[in-house]
Design brief:
7 helices; mainly alpha
Length: 151
Amino acid sequence: MKDLQLNKLIGNIPTVSYSVGQLDKLIHQQLSEALLEIGVSLPQFTMLANLHLRGETANAKLASRSFISPQASNQIIKTMEERGWVSKGEDPNHGRILLIGLTEAGQNVYKQCEIKAFSFENKMLEGIPVENALMLKATIQRLIANLKEDD
């Protein structure tokens, strides 16, 4: 019954999932444009960020954390390796797994990306009080957790 009341309350305005989809599309478009100014794609930035935060990572895990398929990640990693941003090394615990890690050049590129990403985030959150932004982040994390419970 509570769900029906919520739907009636929402009325003719877009659903939360539709609004999140619109936001995701805008983030993807505008952050991609900002990163292209420094020659980095959004998937590359996502991988660089994951490597920066978590250190050396196996390709499949890196792909999953970067929201792309392992096949697509192979090409992205190859390009980043050619640019000197990442290196590959053997996993000491598992001989068949290659670990991807950031090089010093990759760290420098990540720092440039981080500046663009922070600027973008500030634009997106403009006019929203800090406590509301923190509540929004917590709410989004709760939505993610709710959907993962079904996995």
